[in-house]
Amino acid sequence: MVGSVFLCAALLLLLAAGAAIPPPEEAARMARFVLHNCDWGALATLSAQEGLRGRPFANIFSLSDGPPGPFSGSGVPYLYLTDMEISVQDLEINSNASLTVSLAQTPYCKKHGYDPQNPLCAHIIFCGSIVKVNDSEAGLAKKALFSRHPEMESWPKDHNWFFAKFNITNIWVLDYFGGLKIVTPEDYFSVKP
After folding, report:
1. Which residue in 51, 67, 98, 178 is a FRET match for 4, CA 20 to 30 A apart?
2. Using CA of residue 135, residue 191, residue 27, residue 9, what is the dihedral sign?
3. What pLDDT does residue 9 have?
C-alpha cells in the first residue's frame, strides 16, 4: 500500500515537472512547450484577395501538435482547413506563412499578471509554409486535432475539409527580456518538450 502511494506521488511529481515552463536559456524547449500548450494561433499570409493583394493578412486558426498532456506533442502544428476559407485561398497562391502562438491564451500569463505583450508571457513565431498532409500522416493529424477540438468532427462535410501542417523553416522565441532568440528547426525537433 505504501509503495503504491509513493509510486502515485512520484508519478504526479513527474507530470507536474513535465508541465513546468522551461527556463529562458532553453529556447527550443520553450518553443515546443508554448506550441503544445496552445490550441490556436494567428496565421499570417500574403493576401490574394482583391483590394488586399500582396498585403499581410492574419487570421486565427485552431491547431494542435498532439493530444493534451505532457510529452505527447510532436512539435508539428496541424490544422484542419477548407478551400472556402479566405486565408486558405491566399495559401493556394502562395503557401508561405507565419504562425504566432502565445502563452497569453493559457492561464499562465494571467496568473502571473503578465500582459500579453510582456516578454515573460512567451510567444513563438514560426515561419514556413502550409502543406496538405499525405495519407500516412493524416491519422496523426486527425488524432492531434480532434483530441483538442472535438467539434471539428461535426463540421459540414460539404466544405471539403483537409488536414494540413505548418512546415517550419524558421523559429523565433520571445520569452524573456533582451530580444528574440533564434531556434533552428533541427534543434526544435530534437529537443524533448
Report:
1. 67
2. positive
3. 33
